[in-house]
Amino acid sequence: MADRRHFGSVRKRTSGRWQVTYRYEGRRYSSGSFLAKADALAYLSTVEADLRRGAWIDPRDGQVTLNTYAIEWIERRPDLSVRTRELYQYLLRNHILPTLGHTALAGLASSKVRGWHAELAQRHASTAAKSYRLLSTIMRTAVADGLIISSPCKVNGAGTEHAAERPMATIAEVNALALALPESLRLVVQLATWCQLRRGEILGLRRRDVDFLHCVIRIEQSRTFTRDGSSLTKAPKTTAGRRTLSVPPNVMEAINRHLGKFTGVDKDALLFTSAVGSPLTANVLQRAWSRSRRSIGRPDLHLHDLRHTGLTMAAATGATTAELMHRAGHASAAAALRYQHATQDRDRVLASALEALVRPVENIELNTNLSLQGERDY
User: Fold this and answer.
1) Catalytic option among 93, 102, 287, 304
2) pTM for the whole thing?
3) Residues 48 and 67 placed together within one structural domain of the fold
4) 198 is catalytic
5) By residue range, what is the domain housing residue 199?
6) Is 307 considered catalytic here?
7) Catalytic (active site) residue 348
8) Tens of pLDDT along 110-128?
9) Residue 295 belongs to a domain with what CATH number?
10) What does the H/E/C string look like for the chain?
11) Is 304 a catalytic residue?
């Protein structure tokens, strides 16, 4: 028996459960079964209300699986850089789709997302945050595409990474690291520390980017590497990344010596090449760096930590947030603020300065006490 209304109908099936049926734009839709007639009528009323306010979503659209939709989402993003696309594909393949991929978009409940994230975060906190941000972005697109009503990604703080404080090198260690490298690579350490350059920015430097007249270098490109080791030259991701940096005189002298011995004469010649003149690869640099850091007893240091060291030291000299943003190539102040804390070397300087203030007073008090003691003894 069917209970017909002005919109849709509900009928009792032979199983004793109730089924909802309605038509929209010439197509017939039917829901799953409900235990009670009241539940079926409530669902039908909800569908009618959603249709009236333009919030209705075709239930068949939400049946596409996350696996299918996520792969299509990647394919529809020509704006993604090669490295970003590789990262997204890696996260989907290894951390998102194995657990959630076979679930329909409409069936991806917040509780399931929360459980998936909690399990992954226990093993890899940083990867969990990256994976959650990607999943959240994909699901927001699914909402915009009208496939689901709302995103199931509702775990507060799940996309925030809490990275540990990076280690720093002292000035003495920076010098030791450079000396431990082959002569053709020593300039890498100086550029990373005192010019605060990223690895890709260092490897992308050309002879034309060095201006001896004004003692500056221009950051106009970077060389990165795909997961298969292929070299990729590209412009900086942001306007802030394309910048001109003043170079300390001692580093400028080192650049001049390096150009004379290891860089081709062509204006587009890369500063860093292999022994046979081909562009320096990430693997060759990493092997040399690993030997260098082990030789000084700092196996914990990454090459990027030298950039962190240099920016922190720049902050310790009194550099403003805007100045740090410029040197680092940061587009936001938040990234630059992390460097505005004292370095170990700077802390020693401050301690010595405080002692210089206290010492004269202590000497006066000591001499006065000795004088008074002598008078009493007399």
Assistant:
1) 304
2) 0.68
3) no
4) yes
5) 171-337
6) yes
7) no
8) 999 999 999 999 999 999 9
9) 1.10.443.10
10) CEEECCCCEEEECCCCCEEEEEEECCEEEEEEEECCHHHHHHHHHHHHHHHHCCCCCCCCHHHCEHHHHHHHHHHCCCCCCHHHHHHHHHHHHHHHHHHHCCCEHHHCCHHHHHHHHHHHHHHCHHHHHHHHHHHHHHHHHHHHCCCCCCCCCCCCCCCCCCCCCCCCCCHHHHHHHHHHCCHHHHHHHHHHHHCCCCHHHHHCCEHHHEECCCCEEEECCEEEECCCCCEEEECCCCCCCCEEEECCHHHHHHHHHHHHHHCCCCCCCECCECCCCCECCHHHHHHHHHHHHHHCCCCCCCHHHHHHHHHHHHHHCCCCHHHHHHHHCCCCHHHHHCCCCCCHHHHHHHHHHHHHHHHHHHHHHHHHHHHHHHHHHC
11) yes
